[in-house]
From TrEMBL:
The chain crosses the membrane at residues 31-52, 64-84, 96-116, 123-141. This is DMT family transporter. Pfam families: DMT_YdcZ. It comes from Anaerostipes amylophilus. Keywords: Membrane, Transmembrane, Transmembrane helix.
Amino acid sequence: MLGFIIALVSGALMSIQGVFNTEVTKQSSTWTTSTFVQATGFLACLIIWFVTEKDQSFTMLLKVSPKYLLLGGMIGAAITFTVIKSIESLGPAQSAMLIVASQSVISYLIEVFGLFGVEKTGFAWIKLLGVVLFVAGLLIFKWK
């Protein structure tokens, strides 16, 4: 149940952050906003690390394998940019729905094929049906 609640909070925070970032971009620029978001996020993480895990060394990152797993920060910058641009173009609700649809499809493919070290779960028709219904919901939402 805790995981469910955390996921709901995460989704809410992502929606709020996307709107905030888009509004800041209107008063500055996309990459200025993205840089600020990543820098303040870095500072927050650094402070939280210092308070909660300072006994854990950053040198542990040198042992991460495969090395491409360390691209999360670069992906985070791309996420910030693409969320800002999608909200500018489509608005918060439609952007969020398409983002979640994309996350659902890609996450399912990662599980089915066991990509990036994730345990392979195998294909299930009922999960595919869930994704199809989700996409159908997006089309209904868009329909005028």
